[in-house]
Amino acid sequence: MKLMNKTQWKRWLLGSVLALLGLGTTYGQAPKTVNIDDYTFTPLAVKTIKEMDTLLLSDSPEYVKEPGIVAGGTLHGKSRIYFYHVNERTEPMKVGILLENKGNVPAFVEIERAIYAKPSPDYFKVGRELSKKEITTAELDLGTWAQEGVNIPVRSKVMKKDIKQQKENLEQSRKAKVKRVEEEIKKDATSRTISLVSHDTSGTEFVLRPGEVRPIFTELEKVLVKKDDLFSGIVDLSTSEPIYASVAVMEPKSTVTYGLPLLPIHPIDEVELRGTYEGMRRFHVVEPKFNSDAGPASFEIANDREDTFISGVDETTKGKVVKNKGNYGVSNVYVLHTEGKTPYALYFNPLGGAFSGTFRITSSKGAYTYDVPVKGPYLGHQTIYDTQLLDVFDRPEDLLVEYMSPGASNLPVRFLLIPQVAKEMKNDSTSSEYVTNLVNKILGK
Predict the structure, then answer these.
(1) For residue 382, what are the β-bridge partners?
(2) What's this model's pTM, rounded to 2 decimal places?
């Protein structure tokens, strides 16, 4: 047996000590991937603090063979329509969305955002494109959460000040909007002839009179979905009164205004991913704090345990109770507090199968988007061992993760927090004083 020399022995001892402490023996830049079996992760829990707003999910039937209405439901206040369908017909088809005021008073409607991914037979490509568009067109609006009574648990004085200002601005804006809505409804009633069909579909703000119908997101009229192509998109809107929204897959020459109401309602498929759900936006806190001096930790999202799937009803199937298995179309904010002096790396680890999507993380570095994977169609196919480095952080702070489950991707997914040992360690605020002294002592420095 060959004995180790002094240098080899020191390296072995250093690796052993760090392994016992649960710290990575990574020197310099964090590796792009890690072996999860090399670590023991302390599980952190996700606690849902608040969920609000309405989602109309249109994904069942996912595979559509004939024209028909594929989803319908009542929306009121801030709402979202999320559609996800594959054309199984030989001829091309298109998607149409129609709003109807079934109430007795006028409704003011504002279209806040409308996005879609280019139809493709590559489902992951569609899910990835829409995921990226969703993140890049959204704002981290913490002021709205604060306005709804959520105590935003951030420590940054600058961010606290920004949240307070956002909240005040939103309150002033809300009062002004209430007055403007009243004026617009009054103006509309005196300036328009009575008609149950709106022929002006260009505006993002309009009044929908009792009994009136109006197509929205009319850009979809020009998007033809070929056989075997997946098409997916999102419409965010707000309404002053309840309105009924219908989503249909239609023949290219059919009109949304007149043709859609005549179509049959397709039955919901066995996956049951359609209906109206309360909880289109959700705010979570990860507990307890992650201490980088104490070793690796992890937290899961979209696992239907502590981060539960929302429930709703399918109005087109006599109010059938349904569950959004994956929370598709739901915007999430996760707040993670960190402490400790040891720098740490944040990794992404899919657990449920192939995944392809985009996150946004806000920290002291700023707000950055992260594509998973950086290259290739997906990560995590038939394995739980795929990982991807997202970023490295070197100070105690708050991390805010924004996420929406991408279409075609599998769940749950996990974030790994792994402390790092710098190549040149010093007794300063960038690394653990305890670990630094211990390592230096082993190395004889």
Answers:
(1) none
(2) 0.87
User: CA 239 to CA 218: how far, in whole Å?
Assistant: 18
Best CA proximity match to 49, nearest among 332, 276, 313: 332
Cis bond before residue 373 (omega within 30° of 0): yes
Instruction: Categorize the per-residue pLDDT at 198 as very low, low, confident or very high, splitting at 50, 70 and 90.
Output: low
Task: Give the Cα separation of 445 and 435 in Å (integer).
Answer: 13
User: Which residues on neighbouring strands pair with residue 55, listed in sequence order?
Assistant: 80, 277
Q: For residue 331, with 0-12 CB atoms within 10 Å meaning exposed, 13-18 middle and 19 or more buried, which class applies?
A: buried
Write out the DSSP string of 326-388.
T-BT-EEEEEEEEE-SS-EEEEEEE-SS-B-EEEEEEETTEEEEEEESSSSS-B-TT-S---E
pLDDT digits (tens, 9 = 90+) for 210-246: 999 999 999 999 999 999 999 999 999 999 999 999 9
Residue 85 neighbours by CB under 8 Å, 6+ apart: 58, 59, 61, 62, 63, 64, 70, 95, 225, 230, 231, 232, 249
Two tokens, residue 171? 């309150």
Give percent of the chain with pLDDT exceeding 70.
Answer: 86
